[in-house]
Amino acid sequence: MEHQTPPLRRGAVFAVLISSLTVLAAGCSRPSAPTEGPRPPLPVTVIDVQPTRVPLTVEAVGQTEGAREVEVRARVGGILQKRLYEEGAPVKAGQVLFQIDRAPFEIAVADARAKADQAAREMARLKGLLAQQAVSQKEFDDAQSSAAVTQAALQQAQLNLSYTSVASPVAGSTGRAAKSEGNLISTGDSLLTTVVQLNPIWVRFSLSDNELAQLPGGRLTPASVRGVEVVLPDGSTYPVKGRLNFAGSQIDPKLGTLQLRAEFANADGRVLPGQFVRARLTVGQRDSVFLVPQAAVAQSDQGRVVFVANGENKVEPRPVKTGEWQGKDWVVLGGLKAGDRVIVDNLLKLRPGAPVAPHKPGEKPAGMPPAPGAKP
Fold first, then answer.
1. What is the mean pLDDT of residues 59-75?
2. Can you tell me the distance from the alpha carbon of 100 to that of 111, in angstroms, rounded to the nearest whole number?
3. In the list 18, 66, 106, 283, which could disulfide-bond 196, CB 3.0-4.6 Å?
């Protein structure tokens, strides 16, 4: 006969088993991680913007050229004997650059002088005979005309002789010699070199009709331009200011632009012809605008925007209307008011409505822990 456990004893064993499982589960369970608290405000640098006045400028790409670019050509033909200048060196006006063989022209001068002297003597002889009525008036008139013709031929021969010394018509910088010693020079192919006047230097550029429409009065004249600057290819500004010395009278119908030209002093020859530069014209001034660093202006789908720290030290996006650059700053025409605190760093971490800890440039953010080892 099998032995059976009493009901009371079976209940006690079940209770002990349940208690053991509870203790085991409590021993195996891990404590839950504490919940994270609110993030501290993001430290940001802010600047207080105030309305200011800036010059109204317009820029355009231009190219430099000499005030005078002269082709030095031979006026008579012959053998080129000497080159009397160093290529690329500056020369003065009237300085002889080339020498053509003088011998044929000296002979021509001697021949013309002999004929002129003979004609002069013949005219003098007939003049005495005319007083004695030994010759007719017509014979004397013909002799007088012949003397004048031979005298003109002598002057032409002397002029041709002077042309054998080819001089520079202007002061400037010389170019490469197109002919070398020993070449036969002909008047049909007589280019010898070029001379470019570097002082002053000119800058040619143009503005579109849309750019002109945004200027005061909708047009540009030399009198309306207050100053002209040149930005060189290396990004530096040429230290000498210039003036506008030419403005076209009509818009180019093919390009829709107005041709302009500025003039700058270039005594040291720093600017060379052919360089691509930027011409910056001051045509007026803008009042009640704000200057904001370029790094503080972001581009969005709806245009440019800046972030300001509002009165609650929270991020507030502010759409703005920008003008041109002023140095390293944007000229903000609208969207800001006096006293706004514009955030200039950590733009990628900003979120609208997020708390920030603003501080001025060079100051330590408020609420930041002290550096290790720092004295309280």
1. 92
2. 20
3. 66
And the tokens for 40? 């501290």
Question: Taking the alpha carbons of 42, 45, 51, 56 in that order, is the dihedral positive or negative?
Answer: negative
For domain 62-66+196-286, the CATH class is mainly beta
Q: Classify each residue of 268-277 as buried b or exposed e, where b means 16 or more C-beta atoms within 10 Å of its C-beta.
A: eeebebeeeb
The candidate with the shortest Cα–Cα distance to 209, out of 173, 165, 259, 246, is 259
Task: For 354-376, give the DSSP string.
Answer: -BEEEE-TTSPPTTPPPPTT---
Q: How many CA atoms lie within 13 A of 376 on its CB side?
A: 0
**Interatomic CA distance for residues 245 and 262, integer angstroms:** 5
How does pLDDT run across 291-328, given as a tens digit for each residue?
999 989 998 888 899 999 998 899 999 999 988 888 78
Q: Which residues contact 136 (CB under 8 A, 6 or more apart)?
A: none
The model carries a pTM of 0.64
Q: Is residue 316 within 8 Å of 307, Cβ to Cβ?
A: yes
Residue spans in the chain of domains classed CATH 2.40.30.170: 62-66+196-286
- Report long-range pairs for 331-338 (Cβ below 8 Å, ≥24 apart): 331/54, 331/286, 331/289, 331/290, 331/291, 332/49, 332/289, 332/290, 332/291, 332/292, 332/297, 332/306, 333/286, 333/289, 335/306, 336/49, 336/290, 336/292, 336/306, 336/308, 338/49, 338/50, 338/51
**DSSP-derived secondary structure for 234-257:** TSPBPSS-BEEEEE-SS--TTT-E
Query: CA–CA separation, 283 vs 301, rounded Å?
Result: 32
Rounded Cα–Cα distance for residues 135 and 125 (Å):
10
Categorize the per-residue pLDDT at 113 as very low, low, confident or very high, splitting at 50, 70 and 90: very high
The rounded Cα 361 to chain-centroid distance in angstroms is 33
The structure tokens listed for 181 are 């010693």
- If one looks up domain 102-163 in CATH, what number appears? 1.10.287.470
CA atoms within 13 A of residue 66's CA, in its CB half-sphere: 17
Please, what sign has the CA dihedral across residues 336, 341, 343, 344? positive
Which of 222, 217, 274 lies closest to 248, judged by CA?
222
**At the top level of CATH, which class does the domain 44-56+288-359 belong to?**
mainly beta
Q: Which residues pair with 276 in a beta bridge?
A: 63
d(CA 335, CA 2): 97
Question: What's the average model confidence in pLDDT over 54-76?
Answer: 90
